[in-house]
Amino acid sequence: MRVAFLGLGIMGQSMVSNLVKAGHEVTVWNRTPGKLVEGAAVAPTPAAAAQGAEVVWLCVSDTDAVEESIFGKDGAESSLSEGVIIADSSTISPSATLKFAEKVAAKGVAWVDAPMTGSKIGARDGTLVFIVGGAEQDIERLKPLFAAMGKKIFRMGETGKGQATKLAMNLQIAMIYEGFAEALTLATKLGVDSQQLVSLIEATMVRSGVVEYKAPNFPLRLMHKDILLTLEAAKEARVKLPGLQTVEEIYELATEDGNKDLDYAATLTLLEKWAGVQVKGKAA
Fold first, then answer.
1. Comparing C-alpha atoms, which of 223, 234, 236 is closest to residue 266?
2. Is 127 helix (H, G, I), strand (E, B) or coil?
3. Residue 208 burial (CB < 10 Å; 0-12/13-18/19+)?
4. How confident is the model at residue 283 (pLDDT cuts 50, 70, 90)?
5. Residues taking part in catalysis
6. For the whole model, what pTM was predicted?
7. Rounded to an integer, what distance in angstroms lies between the CA atom of residue 93 and that of residue 221?
8. In this structure, how many other beta carbons lie within 10 angstroms of the beta carbon of residue 112?
9. SS3 111
10. What average pLDDT does range 89-93 have in this prediction?
11. Which of 20, 122, 124, 165 could form a cystine bridge with 128, CB 3.0-4.6 A?
12. How much is the mean pLDDT over the chain?
């Protein structure tokens, strides 16, 4: 398939590489010039990348970046024609997704939201799990691309439902890891060996896939962005999330403490600082 791929960040570069290896014709655009993927053509703008494409695939940082890439100056919208599918693997606002989908639908263009999980390693190995919202016929057309980049697709409903589900997933990740970090900090402060605590956790019902396979190299600033998106979506739906509101305060303080570009596990650093203990290096 002819694919315009917008965004060569933490995940995008490996995703494009796997699309090329699978034999797809890929043209890439990245906000910061200079990033290349062997076998993929490079375009100076999203509009240029989207010329003649059957699919425009996005993997950019946030809602504003998606909007700018499609609808901004030199955005892909000017190159879209009837029958094109936009697939968005960014994690953005569900309500904004519906707004964007409605705008391109006027041109006969479909919008599929396809955020993913599996981390940088999953992107490299082509083992991502895609969380998808969109019409079944559009998802069916995208299956060769999903197969090149991932191992599973979960269709969660119509457009917007993929993003809604991804926010629910990240809510759990943030809260589960925060509980783990706070437990390590308290145990260390009370004189418990943190490695023994980790061994106990792994042997009991408290064990968690989040802790065992914590996504490496996912910056705290991006997880914080996802937490804020989740709280915004909850406010729109008139749902209270008191636990996540508290976790967001921790992320805000960790950001102010200079940790925004570290892995999101850096919230532990802040807890250590407050408690006056050091648990890093002792625990898994």
1. 223
2. coil
3. middle
4. very low
5. 166
6. 0.89
7. 16
8. 27
9. strand
10. 96
11. 122
12. 93
